[in-house]
Amino acid sequence: MDKILIEGGVPLYGEVRISGAKNAALPILASTLLAQGTHKIRNLPRLRDIETFGVLLRQLGVGMEVCGDTARIEVGPRTDHRAPYDLVRTMRASVLVLGPLLARMGRAVVSLPGGCAIGSRPIDQHLKGLEALGARISLRHGYVYARASRLQGTTFCFDIPTVTGTENLLMAASLAKGRTVLQNAACEPEVVQLAEALNRMGARIHGAGTDVITIDGVDYLEPAEHWIEADRIEAGTYMVAAAITCGEILLRDCPHRFMEAPIRKLRECGVQIELESDATVRVSASGRPKAVDVTTQPYPGFPTDMQAQLMALLSLARGTSVIRETVFENRFMHVGELVRMGARIEVQGASAVVKGVSRLAGAPVMATDLRASASLILAGLAAEGVTEILRVYHLDRGYERIEEKLSRLGARIQRVKE
Ligand code: UD1
User: Fold this and answer.
1) Residue with CA at minimum distance from ligand 1 atom 20
2) Residues 6+ apart with CB under 8 A from 382
3) For the whole prediction, is pTM greater than 0.90?
């Protein structure tokens, strides 16, 4: 298994280009199942999760060719309707095929994703929503069996906002008969980007980006061409990289219009962030950050996907910070690893109390999930000595060529194959 070695203490300088967003690309890939013909997706990031989704699409009988950052996807008149455990287990977002398969094929058999390192993460809201649209759903032997002759528009209110749940229902309702109104829907930019993609395919969706979305079902959708917007979480991670190393990084293709909450928080920590254009941001810092309190929330609040990275920064702050995690119940797996590097963090229920220290020390650490891995990389960039990060496959799921991008900024980082 690969590991990453970082010799910390080098301020990062230079430019980095932010890649297309994984969480925008996955639902748009799933949406291709809704329309027969040739689809084109550009600015696709080269990531393990995208490859896994490609394997799933191919297993469903879809043709997918990737050349550089462009995918050509060929969908026939019928596709298979089964997403097996082997694939869903490695990537929860595989559940995104449920809505489109049901809507176009009239049936879907999709493995239940089960738990993961950051909590139990049920899909009950996806299933309740599809049932409200008229699907007959049963759970057997670890699989969801869903059937419907034609889905029927309805009004459905989510008990809690869910990103992929909203996306699944958007896709299903696009081909339903009549009007669907989704209340308490997720407002994340990736939901908006999926709605825009579906509208390019002929769907009639209004209100995406607010918590009430209206979908007027159509009889069929056409293939289309899509551009994947840059990744706000990758951008936020490079902002913290500049801050934690007291360097200066120019982020190109940075989607800062979707990053108000993390930018505000980083500024509160004393990080300088200048918005130079729609997509160019200069980030710099000197000295230790200030302690701040933060609570993760659905968009437009502070994203849970940036919590671990901010924690790495706050572990070096002057003073005590309190980080409250409200989105996932068990998302502090990185705490124990940061503590091994000298951080002083105590978890109290859904909060982590971070008492800033003046330095971190390199150590062997283990990545537990995607964003936890990013926080360990960031801590390693600032730490004295060498940090050895094991289980880096988590990182490859969501960060495109991270060692290469960081090396170009001056980091002493290398991947070691074992
Ligand atoms: C998506 C993102 C993930 C991000 C998360 C929250 C993708 C591919 N992944 O994950 O990176 O961390 O949003 O911003 O876009 N829940 C239920 N029942 C459900 C669905 C969700 O109880 O049916 C709960 C979850 O356990 C969690 C909360 O709702 O506590 C939010 O989860 P959700 O928005 O669904 O996250 P994902 O869509 O899985």
Assistant:
1) 123
2) 8, 9, 244, 245, 312, 316, 360
3) yes
Pairing between β-strand 280-284 and β-strand 248-252 as defined by DSSP bridges: antiparallel
* Strand segments (E) across 20-62: 37-42
The identity of residue 72, as a single letter, is R
Q: What is the C-alpha to C-alpha distance for residues 285 and 273, in angstroms, rounded to an integer?
A: 9
Task: Look up residue 161 and give its two tokens.
Answer: 């906002």
Q: In this model, does residue 348 exceed pLDDT 80?
A: yes
Confidence band, pLDDT 50/70/90 cuts, at residue 88:
confident
CA–centroid distance, 161 to ligand 1, in Å, is 8
Whether 116 sits among the annotated catalytic residues: the reply is: yes
d(C-alpha 363, C-alpha 308), whole Å: 18
Q: Are 171 and 100 in contact (CB under 8 A)?
A: yes
What lies within 8 Å, CB to CB, of 336 at 6+ separation is: none
Out of 121, 123, 192, mutate this one to test ligand 1's pocket (max ligand atoms within 8 Å of CB): namely 121
Tell me if residue 79 falls in helix, strand or coil: coil
Q: Which residues contact 134 (CB under 8 A, 6 or more apart)?
A: 148, 150, 151, 152, 154, 176
Residue 123 clears pLDDT 80, i.e. is over it: yes
- The two beta strands, 212-216 and 204-206, are antiparallel
Q: How far apart are CA 87 and CA 8, in angstroms?
A: 36
Residue type, 164: T
Q: What 3-state DSSP class applies to 276? A: strand
- Is the confidence at residue 368, as pLDDT, over 90? no
Say how far apart CA 258 and CA 21 lie, in whole Å.
Answer: 12
Whether 116 has a pLDDT exceeding 70, the answer reads no
Query: What are 385's two structure tokens?
Result: 């000595």
Question: What pLDDT is recorded for position 322?
Answer: 98
Q: Identify residue 388 by its one-letter amino acid code.
A: E
Which residues does ligand 1 sit against, CB inside 6 Å? 23, 26, 92-93, 119, 121-126, 160, 162-165, 186, 190, 304-305, 327-328
Q: Taking 80 as the threshold, does the pLDDT of residue 114 lie above it?
A: no
Q: Where are the alpha helices (DSSP H) in 175-268?
A: 189-200, 232-244, 260-268
Identify any residues that bridge with 364 across adjacent strands, giving them in sequence order. Answer: 388
CA dist., res. 418 & res. 265, Å (int): 39
**How many whole angstroms separate alpha carbon 48 and alpha carbon 400?**
9
Looking at ligand 1, which residue's alpha carbon is closest to its atom 7? Answer: 23
